[in-house]
C-alpha cells in the first residue's frame, strides 16, 4: 500500500465547532496566547491556565468528528495512512483513524509539571492540588509555545516515507510543524486543502485547493482512491 501522510491543523476541527486562535490578533477565546499557552503563563497563573484547558476539555466532550475526519479515516482502506496533527483534540480517533501522531499534545491527557513522561488519561477537570505520582502539580499534556516538540523528529521520519502528503486546514505558519513540508521526497505528491493563503511558497510543488476541509476532502477523496 502507498504511504499517505495527512498533516492536519485547526481548520479541520473548526468545522466541528472547536474554536481556534488566530495568529493575527494573538488571542484564543479572548485570552492572550502567552497567558494560557506558554511556560511563562503557567508560572504566572496556574489556575487561569488550568481553567482555560478545563473549558477546552468540556467543549471537546460536546463536539463530534465531521465529514473531513470521517473521509480521512476511510482512506485507511486504500492506503497506509499516517496522520500527523497539530490539533490537541481526539476527533481523528473518534472518526476511526488508527495511526495518529499528536505533535502538540493531547487535551484528554495530563502530565506532571516536573516530568512530561508521567502522563495520565484526563477526561475531566484538572484542579490546583491534583498531583502526579512524583508529587508535582498536574498540567495539561500540551506543547506550549516556547517548549520543545518531542515528536517532531518522529514526524520528520514519517514524512520522508510519504508517497502522497495531504495538508488539511493549516496555514503552515506555526513552526516547527510547518517545516515538515520540506522533508517530503522529490516525487511525493503534495496536496494542500486550505481556504486561505498559507505561509508556504509552493511554486509548482503542490496542488492547492482553496476549500474548507470538508469540501476539499469530498472533492479529493475519489481522486486519491484512484491513485491507490
Automatic annotation (TrEMBL):
Active-site residues annotated for this sequence: 104 (proton acceptor)
CDD domains per UniProt: SIRT5_Af1_CobB
GO CC term, one of those recorded: cytoplasm
Binding annotation for NAD(+): 9-28, 86-89, 169-171, 194-196, 213
Catalytic reaction list: N(6)-acetyl-L-lysyl-[protein] + NAD(+) + H2O = 2''-O-acetyl-ADP-D-ribose + nicotinamide + L-lysyl-[protein]; N(6)-succinyl-L-lysyl-[protein] + NAD(+) + H2O = 2''-O-succinyl-ADP-D-ribose + nicotinamide + L-lysyl-[protein]
Enzyme Commission number, as recorded: 2.3.1.286
Principal subcellular localization: cytoplasm
Keywords: Cytoplasm, NAD, Transferase
Pfam families the record matches: SIR2
Superkingdom: Bacteria
Domain Deacetylase sirtuin-type: 1-228
Protein's UniProt keywords contain Transferase: yes
Keyword RNA-binding: no
Subcellular location: Cytoplasm
UniProt free text on domains: 2 residues (Tyr-53 and Arg-56) present in a large hydrophobic pocket are probably involved in substrate specificity. They are important for desuccinylation activity, but dispensable for deacetylation activity.
Annotated family: Belongs to the sirtuin family. Class III subfamily.
Protein name, UniProt field: NAD-dependent protein deacylase
Lineage summary: Bacteria, Pseudomonadati, Bacteroidota, Flavobacteriia, Flavobacteriales
Gene behind this protein: cobB
Amino acid at each position: 500500500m502507498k504511504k499517505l501522510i495527512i498533516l492536519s491543523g485547526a481548520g479541520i476541527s473548526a468545522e466541528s465547532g472547536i474554536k481556534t486562535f488566530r495568529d493575527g490578533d494573538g488571542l484564543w477565546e479572548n485570552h492572550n496566547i502567552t497567558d494560557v499557552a506558554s511556560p511563562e503563563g503557567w508560572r504566572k497563573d496556574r489556575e487561569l491556565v488550568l481553567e482555560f484547558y478545563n473549558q477546552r476539555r468540556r467543549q471537546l466532550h460536546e463536539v463530534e468528528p465531521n465529514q473531513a475526519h470521517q473521509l480521512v479515516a476511510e482512506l485507511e482502506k486504500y492506503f497506509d495512512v499516517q496522520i500527523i496533527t497539530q490539533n490537541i483534540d481526539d476527533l481523528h480517533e473518534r472518526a476511526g483513524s488508527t495511526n495518529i501522531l499528536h505533535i502538540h499534545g493531547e487535551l484528554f491527557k495530563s502530565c506532571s509539571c516536573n516530568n512530561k513522561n508521567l502522563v495520565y488519561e484526563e477526561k475531566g477537570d484538572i484542579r490546583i492540588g491534583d498531583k502526579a505520582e512524583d508529587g508535582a502539580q498536574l498540567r495539561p499534556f500540551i506543547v506550549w509555545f516556547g517548549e520543545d516538540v518531542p515528536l517532531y523528529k518522529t514526524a520528520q521520519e514519517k514524512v520522508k516515507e510519504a508517497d502522497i502528503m495531504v495538508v488539511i486546514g493549516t496555514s503552515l505558519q506555526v513552526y516547527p510543524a510547518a517545516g515538515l513540508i520540506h522533508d517530503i521526497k522529490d516525487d511525493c505528491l503534495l496536496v494542500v486543502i486550505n481556504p486561505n493563503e498559507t505561509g508556504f511558497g509552493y511554486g509548482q510543488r503542490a496542488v492547492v485547493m482553496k476549500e474548507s476541509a470538508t469540501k476539499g476532502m469530498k472533492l479529493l477523496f475519489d481522486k486519491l482512491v484512484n491513485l491507490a
